[in-house]
Design goal:
By secondary structure, this protein is of the alpha+beta class. The protein is built from four helices and eight strands; from the N terminus they run βαβαβαβββββα. A three-stranded antiparallel beta sheet has the order 1-4-8. A three-stranded antiparallel beta sheet has the order 3-6-5.
Length: 119
């Protein structure tokens, strides 16, 4: 899963992208000039910081190696490197998308495929 990066997206916005065949970003992405992503290790913190309490979200996994030179790894929170895409996200680079629901404690629940331990 190391080659996957993740986008948290409102379902309605993602469904529009699916219909269009490309994802151009959320309003925050448009404002910043790039599409924000997180690594598997960063996605929970991203959800807590930017999507706290929000429902009707999807977690979208993208194959980073298919994004080419438009994908940049840039320092953000505390100097951590985050993936940023300077361009549109072609939906052919999407590995999967799943519901990103809130649990009883109000925190988002990662899909089972991300919480299984190699054994």
């Amino acid at each position: 899963m190391n080659d996957l990066i993740f986008k948290i997206a409102p379902k309605a916005l993602w469904r529009e992208a699916e219909a269009a065949g490309v994802f151009t970003g959320a309003p925050v992405d448009h404002a910043d000039g790039f599409i924000h992503f997180s690594t598997a290790e960063q996605v929970v913190e991203t959800a807590e910081k930017h999507f706290s309490g929000q429902e009707d979200l999807l977690l979208v996994a993208i194959r980073a190696d298919e994004l080419g030179r438009q994908l940049k790894w840039e320092a953000s929170r505390g100097g951590a490197l985050f993936p940023h895409l300077y361009g549109e996200l072609p939906l052919g680079a999407v590995a999967w998308s799943e519901e990103f629901p809130l649990g009883a404690d109000g925190r988002h629940r990662l899909p089972a495929r991300m919480t299984k331990k190699a054994g």
